[in-house]
Amino acid sequence: MSIGIDRISLYTPSYYLDVCELAVARGVDPNKFTIGIGQDKQAVIPSSQDIVTMGANAAIRLRGDIDDSRLGLVIVGTESGVDASKASALYIHELLNLPHSARCMEIKEACFGGTAALLVARDYIAAHPGKQALIIAADIARYGLASGGEVTQGGGAVAILVSENPRIAEIEEHTSVYSGSIQDFWRPVYTDEAQARGKYSTEQYLEFFEHVWLDYAHTMHAKPQDFAAFLFHLPYTKMGAKALRKLEELTEPVTHLEQRFEQSIQYSRAIGNVYTGSLYVGLISLLELDNSLKAGDRLALFSYGSGAVAELFTARLVEGYEKALYYHADLLNQRTQVSVNEYESIFKDVVPYAPQDYSTNPRYYCGDFVLTGVVGMERQYATRSCAEQPIASAACD
Ligand code: COA
């Protein structure tokens, strides 16, 4: 049975910061950010956007392809959870009016959560032929003002509809996994800012990549030439470039992979880190920007979640895949640039980690769905059209 990615959609909020301006404000050479780290812009996430609204904003485009009688599973992979108990998938379930017969849940393992959701969905469909699964990888990468990780911040969501006979790519059966408890990156429950041992996490990423590649190559007798492209988890795009060099060190020259690697990092250069979604932002970027790929081409995807779990899996493009894509260049190009001062004030205006009521700033409402605030410790979600009406109309009740 062929199972895989039937549709894939990306959402990122309407505001961005130019990292060269950030570099100047922080007293850093801009080349460090654009060349050394490999970023150009980063998404700026207003407090009216969280993993629920961004996930729903990404998934709304897939709604017309969801067959309510076949949708059996909705999973959100995230490390920016908004509740320690209730799954964000349920808020999204309500916003999208999804069928009550679908299981809804949230998966956590740092940036690996999106891949965990995707591969669970694949196995679910193998066990339940004919079903569909909706998976969402949504995150806000937040390290703190003037922190070492600040330049790699970003955010957004990727929604994937997984089904039999997919229109974009079949996920192949064999994968290689490597798990082990390490302390490279974590986020205590009382803060929304990640704690990272930056250099150590970079080293561990490469070490985990080595483990899974060597295992995959050994088991499947694989070599880089078997693949049209390698896609990497991209906490910042230079990280992917380091992984490509590591592959070369372990095997053979990978010149044939370089041009497509460049295509795969373009959207991440403009958005920044999307944690669970980053690998899939890379996939979307490659598929939408490269016009030399063809049906039957195989892609290798490397997923890494700090803490840490790594998995290498592969996918095969299907005939006519390009017709099933949405093309997101406009979403990125039509965003509004904010100054460093404005970014800092948006950054500081967050839902408090305390039980007081709170209202988000309507000035930065974007997308189809918004968080309007928190009342009595309950988050209030709405369609933007309703949230922007001065007096709630009957249609919005
Ligand atoms: N021009 C061009 N390149 C420059 C430069 C300049 N003026 N100044 C520095 N660089 C290069 C450095 O040589 C280095 O390149 P290299 O990695 O190829 O050696 C790169 O820029 C980064 O510089 P460095 O001083 O090592 O970075 P840093 O101390 O600011 O930390 C991170 C970088 C990524 C570790 C930091 O942003 C971080 O902690 N990020 C969050 C954690 C993370 O993303 N982990 C990834 C694994 S999940």
Would you mind describing this structure in some detail?
The protein is of the alpha+beta class. It folds into two domains: 3-168 and 326-383, Thiolase/Chalcone synthase (Peroxisomal Thiolase, Chain A, domain 1); 169-319, Thiolase/Chalcone synthase (Peroxisomal Thiolase, Chain A, domain 1), CATH 3.40.47.10. Helix content is 33%, strand content 25%. The protein contains twelve helices and 18 strands. It has helices spanning 19-26, 30-37, 51-59, 88-95, 113-127, 198-220, 237-250, 255-271, 278-289, 329-333, 340-348, 384-387, and strands at 3-11, 15-18, 41-43, 71-77, 103-107, 132-141, 154-164, 169-171, 176-179, 185-186, 195-196, 229-232, 298-305, 309-317, 336-337, 358-359, 369-375, 378-383. The strands form four sheets. Strands 1, 4, 5, 6, 7, 8, 9, 12, 13 and 14 form a ten-stranded mixed sheet that branches. A three-stranded mixed sheet has the order 3-2-15. A hairpin with a 2-residue loop joins strand 17 and strand 18 (378-383). The longest helix has 23 residues, at 198-220. It is globular and about 60 Å long. The mean pLDDT is 97. Residues 29, 31-32, 35-37, 148-149, 151-152, 196, 198-199, 201-202, 205, 235-236, 238-239, 306 line the site of coenzyme A.
Salient structural properties:
globular, 10-stranded mixed beta sheet, single chain, HMG_CoA_synt_C_dom, alpha+beta, Thiolase-like, hydroxymethylglutaryl-CoA synthase activity, binds coenzyme A, Hydroxymethylglutaryl-CoA synthase, transferase, 2 domains, Peroxisomal Thiolase, Chain A, domain 1, 3-stranded mixed beta sheet, 397 residues, 12 helices, 33% helix
